[in-house]
Amino acid sequence: MEVWLNSNSTPSHDGVDFHFTEKDSEASIFTKEGFLYKGNSQIGAHVHINSDERQQYARSLAGTVDWIYLTFEDWSMIPIENVVAACDQTPTRIAAEIIEPLQAHGAGFALEIGVDALVCSEKELEAALIVKSLRSSTEEVRDERTNQGHDILSLSEVKITSIESGHTGDRVCIDMTSLLEVGEGMLIGSTARSLALIHGETIESTYVPKRPFRINAGSVEAYTMMADGSTKYLSELISGDKVMIVSKQGITRTCTIGRLKIETRPFILLRYSDEKHNQAHLLLQQAETVRVLDKNGAACSVTELGVGDVILAYNTNQTRHIGVSVSASSMER
User: Fold this and answer.
1) Which residues does 257 contact at the CB level (< 8 Å), separation at least 6?
2) 56: nearest Cα among 35, 75, 78
3) Which of 45, 67, 129, 148 could bridge to 15 as Cys pair (CB 3.0-4.6 Å)?
4) Domain limits at 231?
């Protein structure tokens, strides 16, 4: 997103992309007779919205011009949203005049898309630059999501060999800043070589509402897989960390931790083995809302599991040192 400073002078301001002037200038952007110019080049249209007819005219320009510059008789979010909607998925970009600092955020994030340029005076400049920075961060996250989430992990079937009391201990709930889908979860385990897929709280329960941003991950000593493929103990996680979310098909994406909640709870100790009879285990809270995924990819409560049941896990031959895979040997029990 750009910031155009409405000023006939040209003082230097970090973050200002162009100066918007009321007269012709080769170095500035200006309007003339309903058109928008940058220097000697016509780059779009100027639409002053003072009626529904003018709003409809602005919308009709979507896809036909490079820029639509919106000014208002009575500043309002609704025309901005309507023009943003019309121009979405077209090459036409939108510049909108703001006359109060509070309007910067509204225009900058209209329909979660926002205009492409804020045109402001010195009074609104600070607010406009803050929104520009926020938009830059949001677009980086959006680009990350677009470029990620297509890596696939090979999940394996492991068989539960024992279900025991895990006594009580400190349990970690992980709350994301994104919503989880049914069939998604995090890889959790007490050994780095085998991490079970723990399902998010995306399923309704009889006694508690679903929490589609949460994973009840297990005990503080367990490992989890981070977005970059390293591991961390649950006790080491902090807000802002990026973790790997995995679907039942093994498709991965990144989510950011919003907060962690650690409480003393009773545990179930699940022991299991893979097809090569390698042993692993994990400790999960003894609660109906804590679920793993069975061999068919269906979510199953840990309180309903039995010896011989098969669940999904991610198995490797890797040893970890400070969360990083190394070629050294080790034994974990």
Assistant:
1) 174, 175, 176, 177, 237, 238, 239, 240, 241, 242, 243
2) 78
3) 129
4) 156-326
